[in-house]
Design goal:
heterodimer, A: 250 residues, mainly alpha, MetI-like fold, 2 domains, 10 helices, 86% helix, globular, B: 224 residues, alpha/beta, Rossmann fold, 6-stranded mixed β-sheet, 3-stranded antiparallel β-sheet, 7 helices, 9 strands
């Protein structure tokens, strides 16, 4: 109980510090077009939350994030497992992954916009970053499973299904969940950034672009706040889930 | 069950570990391979278990192998019972086995919470419960203190007496070899330099037994 109170107090202090710093920036800027008043941002946020258009935009952006994440996740898991089982394949795919990682994602967006549409491009951009990140994370996790235990399993001819569910999955799951939630957060950032650049209609990024065009700074700040909170929520959810997994494994 | 014969060569790159080597392991015996560090004792065990490639022949039944490693190699997030079942133990045999090694109270304990000695006892139980017909022991007592070591000798003797699987124990400790083996072979420079059968009355032997044999083994180990 004491720990819950401690966490609440730390949370409140963090929020207070953030608001304090924002107010300081507002006073120092002295210009509503640079840093709008906190109260105006809150009013914009309130209006936003009750408007149907916002929720449709929120939902379409969220679906894009989930799509990019799921495609990256499935491909990363499959290829990481194949790489783990076939070291030659891992060597073949390594330079491709390096290229994926090196690609300047938002610059590539321009090419993808030519090839596809403003609705699809943010998904592709997020995939280009999430896939190599997830692949590398899963491959590293798999190669990190205790070799002694794998050897013991070989000696005792433990069936593959049992090895997967009792050795591999419990060994990698908590960190894998953390990687996934971090990727969801990153995916959100990428999708929204790509939507801003692509001017995607009815999306969080599209709303931001409109707010910027009309110099509606309180709305722009409110939208950024929404994205930040959503990213935080996704990462916290993953952290909680991973913690539960770790505790159940103890 | 039949006897097992391992013969052939083993090289690591340019280094020749065994050349035209041959060792016969008789059915139901505890054979101890004694030798200084780096002589290839563990390589022999790993070849018998199919963990290392062996350039030669391994005749006999090496299908059902139980391997007791130097470190217990239990899966930390599984309970004692889950660890035993993971390696092929039948659930109905677990209680009896845990009782015989004095760890009944730990059945549902996660392996990560056991002490080193308890973990090693469970790894012995795992090997015996796996239905192994060939038991390979790779210096399983080496990291234990003397009191725990003697306790584990007793555990091994109790478990072995119940099923009498063919067993190969690797060690560099003469006392350990003499305490548990029916036969001791000394390996040096890739060759068997001494093959000694012990006229064993009890397992493990008690302090003062086989003094003459110990001295012969010591000479074989230290002779240039």
């Amino acid at each position: 109980m004491q720990r819950v109170w401690k966490n609440c107090i730390v949370g409140l202090l963090t929020v207070a510090l953030f608001v304090g710093l924002y107010l300081l920036a507002w006073v120092m800027a002295g210009n509503e077009l640079v840093v709008p008043a906190f109260s105006d941002c809150m009013k914009s946020l309130g209006k936003l939350l009750v408007s149907g258009g916002f929720w449709r935009a929120f939902w379409t952006s969220f679906v894009r994030v989930v799509c990019a994440f799921l495609i990256s996740l499935v491909l990363a898991v499959v290829l990481a497992v194949v790489s783990y089982l076939l070291p030659t394949f891992a060597r073949i795919i390594a330079p491709w992954i390096a290229v994926f990682r090196a690609v300047p994602t938002l610059a590539v967006l321009l090419i993808i916009l030519v090839w596809t549409s403003a609705r699809v491009a943010p998904v592709v951009v997020a995939f280009l970053t999430l896939f190599p990140t997830l692949y590398t994370a899963f491959y590293t996790l798999l190669t990190g499973v205790d070799r002694d235990l794998i050897e013991m399993s070989r000696v005792y001819k433990v069936p593959v299904k049992r090895r997967i569910f009792q050795l591999y999955l419990p060994s990698v799951a908590p960190q894998a969940v953390r990687e996934c939630s971090a990727s969801l957060g990153l995916g959100l950032k990428l999708v929204v950034s790509a939507e801003v650049l692509a001017g995607t209609y009815l999306s969080l990024g599209g709303f931001m672009q409109d707010a910027k065009a009309y110099l509606d700074m309180p709305l722009l700040f409110a939208l950024v706040g929404v994205c930040a909170v959503l990213g935080l929520l996704l990462e916290s959810l993953g952290e909680i889930l991973a913690g539960v997994m770790e505790r159940s494994g103890r | 069950m039949s006897e097992i014969v391992i013969s052939g060569n083993k090289r690591y790159g340019e280094k020749v570990v065994f050349e035209e080597f041959s060792l016969r392991i008789e059915k139901g015996e505890i054979l101890c391979i004694l030798g200084p560090s780096g002589v290839g004792k563990t390589t022999l065990l790993r070849a018998l278990a199919g963990l290392t490639a062996w350039d030669g022949e391994i005749l006999g039944n090496t299908e059902k192998v139980g391997y007791i490693f130097q470190e217990p190699r239990l899966i930390p997030h599984l309970t004692v019972m889950q660890n035993l079942i993971y390696a092929g133990a039948k659930e109905s045999e677990v209680d009896g086995m845990l009782e015989s090694i004095g760890l009944s109270a730990y059945k549902y304990q996660k392996a990560r919470y056991l002490s080193g000695g308890e973990k090693q006892r469970i790894s012995f139980a795992r090997a015996f419960l796996s239905g192994a017909e060939l038991l390979l022991l790779d210096e399983p007592f080496s990291s234990l203190d003397i009191a725990l070591k003697e306790k584990l000798y007793e555990v091994f003797a109790t478990l072995w007496t119940a099923k009498k699987p063919t067993s190969v124990l690797v060690t560099h400790d003469i006392d350990e070899a003499v305490a548990l083996a029916h036969r001791v072979v000394v390996i040096k420079d890739g060759k068997i330099v001494c093959d000694l059968r012990l006229d064993r009355k009890q397992l493990p032997s008690v302090y003062g037994d086989f003094e003459r044999e110990k001295s012969a083994l010591f000479q074989a180990l230290t002779k240039e």
